[in-house]
Amino acid sequence: MTASICQCLRVFRISCCAILALCSLCASAWAASLPANTTLPVSFVTNLEAGKNKVNDPVRARTLQEVLLPDGTHIPKGTVLVGHVTQSIPLHFDQTPYAVQKPSLLAIHFDRIELRDASLPVNLGVRAIAGSFAVEDASRPFNTTELQMTGSMIQVGGDTYWPPDNKVHSRSGDIVAYLRKEGVFARPMVAEANNAVSGLSCDAVSQEQAVSIFSASACGLYGMTDDVLESNGTDGSGTFVVASSRASVFLLAHSAALLEVLP
Q1: How many CA atoms lie within 13 A of 218 on its CB side?
Q2: C-alpha Rg value of the chain to the nearest Å
């Protein structure tokens, strides 16, 4: 009888220790968070179209390059971010003479990032969005010659670099970023938003961040001439809104965004 009781107590202790260890692991995983102002350059996995996609439809994107964090850890290239559609309004053209068209709207909120050991909640603003054609232009070399086989790379926003050289230059010739083995890194700069409603802008970030195909000063919309960035989510909502009074908002797969963790 005594031996049986001792065995039961041992099993109970082992079970309690296992439960405590599991709770500790879960707590540490969910207590972790990405530092404020961490940038995440991502590519959208599928097409997104206002009116066709419904509210709460899932949105998936993958990081375009490795993201280095201040504690020495990193987020691998290809890491998945998951979000959802919060608004989806197609354009209904009003043929009434002099009618002011009600814009099409597509609003997106990213909810979490799927890391190897945890699924972390995130609240992200957007610094810049590039249409798929702008992404393609920024991903291929220009001015390739027999003497310069690699050609120059022109980032979304206009910064340039020549791959044998690790320095990225702005249009004025300043060194604003560096090409490293993990990708392109810069200290994002203050800038007024391109193709956006009045007042939208991007703040400077003092720590070096992953930017991939985006310039250090990239802010707003690129390669999306019919669209306007109505909100970048930096009001704390983490929801960015693209609007258009010419057509229903349409984000092709492989369009890209430079997201930023909100404080």
Answers
A1: 36
A2: 23
